[in-house]
TrEMBL record:
PROSITE patterns: SULFATASE_1 (PS00523). The conversion to 3-oxoalanine (also known as C-formylglycine, FGly), of a serine or cysteine residue in prokaryotes and of a cysteine residue in eukaryotes, is critical for catalytic activity. Residues 29-365 form the Sulfatase N-terminal domain. The modification 3-oxoalanine (Cys) is found at C73. Residues 1-18 form the signal peptide. One of its GO terms (biological process) is glycosaminoglycan metabolic process. PANTHER family: N-ACETYLGLUCOSAMINE-6-SULFATASE FAMILY MEMBER, SD21168P. InterPro entries: Alkaline_phosphatase_core_sf, GlcNAc_6-SO4ase, Sulfatase_CS, Sulfatase_N. This is Sulfatase N-terminal domain-containing protein.
């Protein structure tokens, strides 16, 4: 099967006879998918991961233009799990009423995830770590609910935490305290993953699919004791948009206090250091997983994916910390893949979206011939894994987000302040109901087309358009100066993508 995949990657046509011979010769490949929480790529988010560089980047393919289609945990995770854009999996935000792990989600889209696809292809599946933010809540089945598709389930109840959490051990809630050696979640996930890899090969002949989903580098950023003093002199990177005033940008960004207060800057700097420290344990986890695969002689027959759910900002446009914005720092995430037939130590620049992960996993478990559930909105990345292949690829994709708000004023802020959320420090809000937008991100590196076009659903029907070719930091909204036909084309494309489903999401854009 691996050899078959290898041949398919080189673009040869495999005969039925060859397939039969080869599937007898080599067992189907395993897949390990490591997903971090809130890890950026533009603010140094990959820098502390020196082992990941050596074990994954040098040994695999790094996708330099990987994006989330929704810059918030729960909708992005739902996209990763189902291969669908938010408008097609209906998870709109991090709350149950927004269908984050809701009963409706459980009986509809949860039955169509990458795990279900892997199980159908006779894979044994394993999940450990943060799932969807509202997982395990009482009203949605509690920790007793084990999502369909997983043979081994070790799912964190609720949002990312490192200590003092409950975890569902195959449906049995287990409470953990705050002792580093017993409870530190990133290490516990590494231990569980290593155990699974060791035990699997002794007891099962099937291939496996593992998803390891770390809390790091999400808040509350507890680091392992040995890393807690690192980077004491580092500060959040002062990128060209750091602590700048939002000019000609949507309402939410305009409300940020500028210049940032000392309190806000200190807060961002502390977040930056803490995030890096928490990531050091992810680096260790990756090394331990690779060593376990190697020890069990599975490393050459295993794909390892590394990615994150959304990016992050730390003072860009004077917003102290968070995600939820349409800008590059919140949308860009890492994607590295190593495995049988994957080109080593290379980068690729095609635009990749979080909705591509599920089709890729489904394709690999089905033999790597381009076979994945067609209701998925993404594309299989298998043709890109060999650097000699230059397949025709998408030139744009959709970004969509429905802002979160609260009807009551944020604690400690003006009582007239309504419809906003995440207002800290200093009552600077990172989200609002009307931080609701959809965008077309057009990216054709070979033609130097690199644009972002967004429309807001707010009282201003605000529009933002950036030309990254000349403005990579998105400082100048050109909607008022650009040739108006560009706006017309982008708007048309946005309407099309905003309603797309399955095949129509994969159709090429007007630029082709
Ligand atoms: C989930 O989505 C469905 C369909 O869009 C909607 O009817 C429902 O109100 C949403 N929320 C919950 C909690 O199910
Ligand atoms: C864990 O909970 C204990 C008891 O409530 C508390 O004292 C401790 O500070 C908590 N630790 C962390 C890291 O959350
Ligand atoms: C993980 O396993 C190692 C080695 O067995 C052990 O020393 C460590 O305490 C474990 N950590 C957790 C959080 O279980
Ligand atoms: C941080 O800066 C102080 C003062 O310059 C220095 O003593 C210390 O060694 C530095 N720490 C690190 C980790 O570089
Ligand atoms: C990876 O490629 C770069 C240049 O493309 C080269 O400098 C480096 O030595 C290579 N690393 C490995 C581990 O082969
Ligand atoms: C999440 O989305 C639902 C459905 O649109 C909405 O009712 C709810 O208010 C949203 N939650 C927040 C915190 O904005
Ligand atoms: C967005 O919502 C906030 C809070 O409700 C409101 O003050 C503001 O005027 C709204 N802005 C736009 C452009 O809709
Ligand atoms: C973006 O900038 C490049 C380089 O100046 C230019 O060639 C291109 O026409 C611009 N695109 C738009 C839509 O303005």
């Amino acid at each position: 099967m691996i050899k078959l995949l290898f041949i398919a990657l080189f673009g040869c046509i495999c005969t039925v006879e060859a397939q039969l011979v080869m599937s007898k010769a080599s067992p189907p490949p395993n897949i390990v998918f490591i997903l971090t929480d809130d890890q950026d790529t533009l603010l140094g988010g990959m820098d502390p991961l020196v082992k990941v560089k050596k074990l994954l980047q040098d040994e695999g393919t790094t996708f330099t233009n990987m994006f989330t289609s929704t810059p918030l945990c729960c909708p992005s995770r739902a996209s990763i799990l189902t291969g669908r854009y938010s408008h097609n999996h209906e998870t709109l935000n991090n709350t149950i009423s927004g269908n984050c792990s809701s009963l409706y989600w459980q009986k509809t889209f949860e039955t169509q995830t990458l795990a279900v696809a892997a199980q159908k292809a006779n894979y044994r599946t394993f999940f450990a770590g943060k799932y969807l933010n509202q997982y395990g809540g009482k009203s949605v089945g509690g920790p007793q609910h084990v999502p369909v598709g997983w043979n081994q389930w070790f799912g964190l109840v609720g949002n990312s935490k490192y200590y003092n959490y409950t975890i569902s051990d195959n449906g049995v809630p287990v409470q953990h305290g705050a002792n580093y050696h017993e409870d530190y979640l990133t290490d516990l996930l590494a231990n569980r993953s290593v155990d699974f890899i060791h035990n699997h090969k002794m007891r099962y002949t099937q291939p496996f699919f593992m998803m390891i989903s770390t809390p790091a580098p999400h808040s509350p950023w507890d680091s392992a004791p040995q890393y807690s003093k690192m980077y004491e002199n580092n500060t959040a990177p002062h990128t060209p948009s750091y602590n700048t005033k939002a000019v000609n940008k949507h309402w939410l960004v305009r409300q940020a206090t500028h210049p940032m207060t000392k309190e806000s800057m200190d807060y961002s700097d502390n977040a930056f250091r803490s995030r890096w420290r928490a990531l050091k344990s992810v680096d260790d986890l990756v090394e331990r997983v690779i060593n376990a695969l190697s020890k069990m002689k599975q490393l050459d027959n295993t794909y390892v994916f590394f990615s994150s759910d959304n990016g992050y900002h730390l003072g860009q446009f004077s917003l102290p910390i968070d995600k939820r914005q349409l800008y590059e720092f919140d949308l860009r995430v890492p994607l590295i893949i190593r495995g049988p037939g994957v080109s080593k130590n290379v980068t690729r620049s095609e635009p990749i979206v979080n909705v591509d992960i599920a089709p890729t996993v489904a394709d690999i478990v089905n033999g790597g011939k381009g076979d994945f559930p067609l209701m998925m909105d993404g594309e299989s990345l298998v043709p890109l894994l060999n650097s000699n292949n230059k397949p025709k690829w998408r030139s744009d994709f959709l970004v969509e987000y429905q802002g979160e708000g609260k009807d009551s004023p944020p604690p400690g802020c003006s009582p007239t302040w309504r419809g906003v959320s995440q207002c800290f420090p200093g009552c600077v809000c990172e989200d609002a109901y009307n931080n609701t937008y959809s965008c077309v991100r057009t990216l054709q590196p070979q033609h130097k087309v690199d644009l972002m076009y967004c429309e807001f659903t707010d009282t201003e029907t605000f529009v933002e358009l950036y030309n990254h070719t000349i403005d990579p930091h998105q400082l100048n909204n050109i909607k008022d100066t650009v040739d108006p036909t560009v706006l017309v084309k982008m708007n048309k494309r946005l309407i099309m993508l905003g309603l797309c489903s399955g095949k129509t999401c994969r159709e090429q854009s007007y630029i082709d």
